[in-house]
Specification:
single chain, mainly alpha, 87% helix, transmembrane helix, transmembrane, membrane
Amino acid sequence: MNKFLRVMFVFAIAAMSGAVVLQLFFPDDMASHSAYRVSYGWQREIAVWDIAVMIILIAVNLKYDAYFLKTVLLALIVGGIGIGTNHLVHFLDQRSLVNGVGAIENYLLVLGWIVGWKLQFRKSRK
């Protein structure tokens, strides 16, 4: 796997780790800046989901397999577009800072996943 993708995976894992901590231990702080408000059960569920995704990202990093790397990248791209668009809709509706940052962060990650995909699989075609 190329260095760019490895850096992207590390960045995603770090960001998701931070989100897990915030969702589990500081849900009121997160909700005060979000259009979604607080929902403790939902925020715990998001944190657990993030942990599950981090396990997948770590596994793909530890054992390279082109098929599974493509599958994980596609899932990250689709998820990033969906989550980013959800944040963007709420940002446009309520101008909440957390949602604006969430939209930008997710769209930048999608761009990074696409660039990493191109870099990785362009060299394998040669």
